[in-house]
Amino acid sequence: MASRAFTLLLLLPLISAMVFTPPRRVPPSTFTPKPSSSSSHPVPSPSPSTFSPPEMFTESIDKISPLTFQDFYHHQMSWMEENLAGLKEITETVPAKFVKMENEKKKVRIIQRYFTSDLYRKIRILYYDGGPNAQVFNSLLYPSYDYDMPVLGIDLLQFSHKKHLTVIDFQPLHDDHPPFEPSLANIKKEYPELNGQMSSKFYDETQFFSKELLFARFEDVELVNDKLYPAFEKYLDQHHDMISGQEKVDDEKRAVLEERQREYDVYSAERDPATGMFGAMFGKEW
Fold it and tell me: What beta strand segments (E) does the chain contain?
């Protein structure tokens, strides 16, 4: 799953709207930075300004469609504030054009926010609102180079109120059998509806994907509430529990992890089907 694999929406046909049962409501969070215990990875330091991070949308761009995954966004924001020591927003260090964009003619818009903490060197949260055509929540949590942990990747997509494509995975940085897979297997077996087979059209599932990824295509909107949301919560908690129990690696291993995270980004970028869509919606620089 690449950072923007959600743009498979270009490849899926649009269908007529259906009545949607909105997800459970999570109160919007107000972000407050948390004190850091000790962090060994560099943190960008924005200069003082009147910068205000983009707020999550309160209604869809068409004023009618539900923001299908807004509760996932709010839950992760609250979860980060409650669990991550040293949490700091670094969205201001990103060019503004990649933080918030809207195409009024095509009725699409996107926001991105970036964070860092003691355990995670970078966290990105993205929400894409395409009204009735597409709703997308995407997040990537990159561990600090001090910890030999996979990247937590989340891609949740809905097309035309009905078709869903969802991927949640601990994306391993090594080719050998990841030691964390048994712990994920216990969670995965609770959600057989999310145990589908990923297509190899864009990505090689033998690279940077675990055997315990949650992958699903479905049309039953009730699964968003009943299965996807609790699975999302448990994968977030499990990733944090595991990284919290890790010992810091030595300098040699740290260099290996830094290189593997770079390779992960290159792999994702080379296979990312988002380039064409973002260029069409928000300009070639996307």
Answer: 88-89, 100-103, 108-116, 120-129, 134-143, 151-159, 163-171, 214-218
Cα separation, 181 vs 124, whole angstroms: 24
Terminal alpha carbon distance of the chain? 18
Each residue's pLDDT tens digit, 50-89: 789 999 999 999 999 999 999 999 999 999 999 999 999 9
Which DSSP category does 195 fall into?
B
- Indicate the SS3 state at residue 249: coil
Integer CA distances (angstroms), 194 to 37, 206, 226, 284, in order: 37, 19, 11, 35
How far, in Å, CA of 236 to CA of 139, rounded?
11
Is residue 131 within 8 Å of 61, Cβ to Cβ? Answer: yes
Write the pLDDT tens digit of every residue in 164-208: 999 899 988 887 766 777 888 899 999 999 988 776 554 455 566
The pair of structure tokens assigned to 144 is: 């600090």
Length of the chain counted residue by residue? 286
